[in-house]
Amino acid sequence: MEDGFGGLRHMLTIVFLSGLAGFMVAPVITDVTVAAVCSRPDDSCSLAVYLTGFQQVAIGLGTMVMMPVLGNLSDRYGIKVILTLPMCLSILPPVILGYRRDTNFFYLFYTIKILTALVCEGTVDCLAFAYVAENIQDRTRTSAFSILAGIKTISGVCGTLVARFLPIALTFKVSAISFLVALVYMRLFLKERLNDEEDGDHHHGDNDATMLAEPILNDTTIKARVFNKKQPSLKDMISLMKTSTIFVQALVVTFFSSFSDSGMQSAFLYFLKARFGFDKNQFADLMLLVTIVGSITQLFVLPTFASAIGERKLLSTGLFMEFTNMAIVSISWAPWVPYLTPLFVPGAMLVMPSVCAIASRQVGPGEHVKLGKVQGCISGVKSFGKVVAPFVFSPLTALFLSNDAPFYFPGFSLLCIALSSMIGFLQSLMIKDVPAPTLDKPINNISSEEV
To answer: What is the predicted pLDDT for the residue at 389?
Structure first.
């Protein structure tokens, strides 16, 4: 590779700028929503909860379809080309709220956000993971994933700081500018592949030998072809699921993890606002602590422990920490209790890099062109979890924050989220640790099959 991890600097910059734009909106959007649609600023307001839940469902349905398609298109036309449209569309929603935030403009933002997020939500992250998987060798891929996720978390720190100290109107304007800068930077500097020259030599010389020497899957019998280049993404996903138990298990863990994460988006901030009266500044303070600890975890803890204990153990550890976190927050008895959250942030930061690393190992280095489809499948399952969660957690949150709750337990929905993480944890324990393949064994296997 061109400069090792240094060759990824342009993609990391794009992830940082787009993450910065997204994260600076997160602490203020709850207050903006409640102010626009609720009768009182301190109202628990079921309408705000349901609007957020419906938005998650609509966006999740769109991205569940679009992420595998975008992953497939990126394999065919290139990551840089496919990133252009979603990065353009991402600029529109913050521009609307940067102009005005009354009820009419909020609903305009709400509609445009849903429509644009169908192709924007998660696209940068999905294709960034595919870019890393394509350009980084297998043995260092987990560390590269963790660095990528760490940069995203650092962007969260910076975005939250911006939201903490800027007025709300200016926050949305700066967010739009950051999206624009990311788009321009991507078009000017991002290279489609970091090792084009090496690939050229490789394809002209030893391509056939390498394809024979690399297994398509690590834990199954070698097959001549798993994918056809022009198969639809859904068929690609089904083909890989049929031939890799580990990939199926990784998708199950991905579902329950995203189900929990989406549930938290439906419940957590509204729980804090209704239970303890949190506002924009307190949301920002809490998110700032979370992102600082998360960035340290992604950049320093995960790369160290990934090589020491393996992705599967990291995954299990992360899911168990997520369960513990939500279980504690669900019984919060004082405003300071949610500030314990950063103690368990490393858990959430460990999950998706570990899942992506485990899934990418199910495609041999000779099939790097298919890594976009693998990451697209993972993103599609994540989106499915995000679709299902609001149907469960939005009504549950609204019910237990209202005066009509069957019993007094404002954090009951958070406890259910914790149980979802526990299911993912139990599934992760069933994933086998599969060592990296050697070249001799695949060659021997293929030779014997040909005989």
So the answer is: 82
**pTM for this structure?**
0.63
Domain containing 304 — which CATH number? 1.20.1250.20
Judge whether 264 lies within some domain: yes
Question: How many Cβ atoms sit within 10 Å of the Cβ of residue 316?
Answer: 23
What was the pLDDT predicted at 181? 93
Confidence (pLDDT) at 180: 93
Per the domain annotation, does 208 fall within a domain? no
Domain count, the chain: 1
CA distances from 104 to 36, 38, 109 (A): 8, 13, 9
Residue entry with tokens 């890799």: 244
End-to-end, the C-alpha distance of the chain in Å comes to: 36
DSSP assignment letter at 24: T
At 364 the pLDDT is 56
Residues of the chain with pLDDT under 50: 1-3, 197-232, 369, 435-451
Give the range of the structural domain holding residue 340, as residue numbers without chain letter. 6-192+227-450
Distances (CA, A) of 108 to 95, 100, 103: 11, 10, 9
Q: What are phi and psi of 332, to 5 degrees?
A: -55, 130
In a domain, residue 86? The reply is yes
